[in-house]
Design goal:
The protein is of the alpha/beta class and 319 residues long. Helix content is 33%, strand content 17%. The chain binds threonylcarbamoyladenylate and magnesium ion (MG). The site of magnesium ion (MG) has 3 residues, from loops.
């Protein structure tokens, strides 16, 4: 049997223990403002391989490197003036920049899965930042869920998916943003994944539109496999009301749901509640023997674009 996963408190003792485990090459799930990340030393082939193994993640899907400051980002990647402007505007925070990987970066080749770019993020969560500082190096961290399943926004969610497969989880409470970071590449700017920073805010900062999708230098985020965030039940989108045999999730005023993403129709609250609501709905569907979770329509602007992206993937045919 594997060792049990230790639950560490979000205090100096917990941070020191987490940093010690990470320095030994072990994996620790940490809270970020977006979702919980499964952290390992980004410089260690052993630790990075263990991340892929614990998640059951395909090796072609590269990982995001988390850093404590812009200086470390600049040691790992070539940060152009345009990239630095964005970093200064949105870091720390839920923005990931895909940048040219420096040949002398010292990052495990497994992190970038053979690409000549690297995805970098400077998280805002005080616990993530304290651990990055205590560890003193770059941490590779995908979302701390089994590959293809619903991302975790509490320590409990992490344990539900990865208990016994990782050394520890730091319990930092629920994640405030609730869905993953926005990923962009630059030269020219492209939106690779909608997320916690609305695309409108990035377009405003860039003074340019932000087209979706990859380009020749930077392929579309390879992890954007169509089926993802999959609950056990099926998912129906844009539902006007509950149909027989469904769990109904409302948004804003309108027909009452079994659950609501946000009773007032607030997109920030909806994003924060998304993954925990999807988990709760899945448990309800299972308890009641229902096959489908139906979602009311969500406006497609601001964080609504990221919510709808995750819901489309949750609804996609499973492979
Ligand atoms: O908010 C977040 O971004 C969370 C927290 C833990 O930081 N992390 C996260 O990681 O969502 P993950 O592994 O679940 O998603 C990372 C995405 C994948 O779709 C991957 O394909 C993409 O980032 N990615 C990583 N490196 C890339 C690169 N060099 N070029 C394009 N996409 C990349
Ligand atoms: Mg993920």
């Amino acid at each position: 049997m594997s060792d049990p996963t230790e639950i560490l408190p979000a205090d100096v003792g917990g941070f020191a223990k987490a940093a010690r485990l990470l320095a030994q090459g072990a994996l620790v799930a940490i809270p970020t403002e977006t979702v919980y990340g499964l952290a390992g030393d980004a410089r260690s082939d052993h630790a990075v391989a263990a991340i892929f193994a614990a998640k059951g993640r395909p090796q072609f899907n590269p990982l995001i490197v988390h850093v404590a400051d812009l200086e470390l980002a600049e040691q790992i990647a070539e940060v152009s003036p345009a990239a630095r402007d964005l970093a200064q505007a949105f870091w720390p925070g839920p923005l990931t920049l895909v940048l040219p990987l420096r040949p002398d970066a010292g990052i495990s080749e497994l992190v970038s899965a053979g690409h000549d770019t690297v995805a970098i993020r400077l998280p805002a969560h005080p616990v993530a930042r304290a651990i990055l500082r205590a560890f003193g190096g770059p941490l590779a961290a995908p979302s701390a869920n089994p590959s293809g399943k619903i991302s975790p926004t509490t320590a409990r969610h992490v344990l539900d998916g990865l208990s016994g497969k990782i050394a520890a989880v730091i319990d930092g409470g629920a994640c405030a943003v609730g869905l993953e970071s926005t990923i962009i590449s630059l030269d020219p700017p492209r939106l690779l994944r909608p997320g916690g920073v609305p695309a409108e805010a990035l377009a405003g900062a860039l003074g340019a539109t932000l087209p979706q999708g990859g380009n020749a230098q930077s392929p579309n985020a390879p992890g954007q496999l169509s089926s993802h965030y999959a609950p056990g039940a099926g998912v129906r989108l844009g539902a006007a009301a509950r149909q027989p045999g469904e769990i109904f999730i409302s948004f804003g005023p309108g027909p009452a749901g079994d659950l609501s993403l946000s009773p007032s129709g607030d997109l920030i609250e909806g994003a924060a509640n998304l993954f925990s609501t999807l988990r709760a709905a899945d448990a309800l569907a299972q308890a009641q023997g229902l096959a489908t979770i139906a979602f009311a329509p969500i406006p497609d602007h601001g964080l609504g674009a990221a919510i709808n992206d995750r819901l489309r993937r949750a609804a996609a045919p499973r492979s």
